[in-house]
Amino acid sequence: MKTLPYIRKDIERVAPDLVKKASRFQAAILADVGGRRGTLGGQIKPLHPSMKVAGPAFTVEVRPGDNLMFHAALAMAQPGDVIVVEGKGDLSAALCGTIMVTQAQASGLAGFVVDAATRDSEEIVAGSFPVFSAGTNPNGPTKALGGRVNWPVTLAGTTVNPGDLIVGDADGVVVVPRENVEEILVLAQKKVDAEATRIAAIKSGDLGASWLQQTLVQAGVIKEGEVL
């Protein structure tokens, strides 16, 4: 029986030019055009609302409260990568803090997304490296338990595959499957253009929503021909 590796060193990443294009869009736009799916649960938030991140996922699975494999990923990840940690939502111990953030920034990484606690938040917020997490805790982790690197992980109800596109901002984090990124970006631009047109119309005095009346009829809330 063949033994599968715990650590996968080679992954196919979303292309850098697509990451750059994607970074111009809000996470909400990408989520909408992706079928209102792919967003991590709302408990995963930036340590500060100004933080933004975009890049290919470098995935890590750890045991709750232990960051051994997080350190392994930090030693392996390439510039531009976003380390995405499946920490099982555990908030009993922080999986990273200032030291790991400093190492990641010096290595050219794009950010951390951690489904667990982090710490040293005041120092991290004072810097420029984006960290998204499920919470904070001053308690430190153990460094002893095995896990996996660059396998599919699940964070807050959403699956993330190695190399998928990660985009995060004040609203949270969205995951775009690597093979769908080009299509999603085309749709995202169309939505941005459509929303700009609608906002301009509202500011010009057109306060009605053209879709609302018929949708209310279809939902059985009002009758055909009835108006609000």
Strand content: 15-25%
Overall morphology: elongated
**Class from secondary-structure proportions:** alpha/beta
Q: If you compute it from the alpha carbons, what radius of gyration comes out, rounded to the nearest whole angstrom?
A: 20 Å
Low-confidence stretches: none
User: Fraction of residues in helices?
Assistant: 25-40%
Name of the level-1 CATH class: Alpha Beta
* Sheet with most strands: 8 strands, mixed
CATH topology grouping:
Glucose Oxidase, domain 1
Would you identify the CATH architecture?
3-Layer(bba) Sandwich
Secondary structure blueprint with pairings:
Elements: H1 16-22, H2 27-33, E1 45-46, E2 53-61, H3 68-76, E3 82-94, H4 98-106, E4 111-118, H5 121-126, E5 131-136, E6 148-149, E7 153-155, E8 158-160, E9 165-169, E10 172-176, H6 181-203, H7 212-218
Parallel strand pairs: 2-3, 3-4, 4-5
Antiparallel strand pairs: 1-5, 2-6, 2-9, 7-8, 9-10
